[in-house]
Amino acid sequence: xxxxxxxxxxxxxxxxxxxxxxxxxxxxxxxxxxxxxxxxxxxxxxxxxxxxxxxxxxxxxxxxxxxxxxxxxxxxxxxxxxxxxxxxxxxxxxxxxxxxxxxxxxxxxxxxxxxxxxxxxxxxxxxxxxxxxxxxxxxxxxxxxxxxxxxxxxxxxxxxxxxxxxxxxxxxxxxxxxxxxxxxxxxxxxxxxxxxxxxxxxxxxxxxxxxxxxxxxxxxxxxxxxxxxxxxxxxxxxxxxxx
Length: 243
Hints:
The protein is of the alpha/beta class.
């Protein structure tokens, strides 16, 4: 997969040269190309922003340097153009999986008060948000997007089950997990996980995943198709007012 990133701070993306994403790039599974918008600035001071027409706070990234940067990308490598914006569609695991199937994608990182609307109207295919909050720049949102996508590219993770069983992968939160030692500060790992009975462990994990979702994110339960067993468990927990 090839991802072009339009930014005024390409150095921020050096953080991707470590961890899982770095391994994916070394294996040629993923290519990330930060493109400096300032290189297409139209004045000698390399300004890419100006005050908004009609007045208002802050500055706005101008259309011309952005559009020139978009046009500099080989059309075969452009893919859908996504603008990281708090006004966009909320990023979900389902959306991440969908984007991970693309061969090419271009991401625009906004700054200040945003980018000229004419870029959005004529060049952006989709606006994506990572949450209802404001960051100082779209670069950090883009890194979140790239990291989430990279996990779903075949060959990136050593064990594909790592993402198949992630929180949200089946619509539920992941069950509690434990590591060594078996006993720490008088707190013991649940006996079922030490039993060696894989069927019982699988059933326990499934039930704990449902319970955790019921306690922390009950809103998610409305979005998935529940089995009769799951419905029965939820009824029992609701009647007992489990918190």
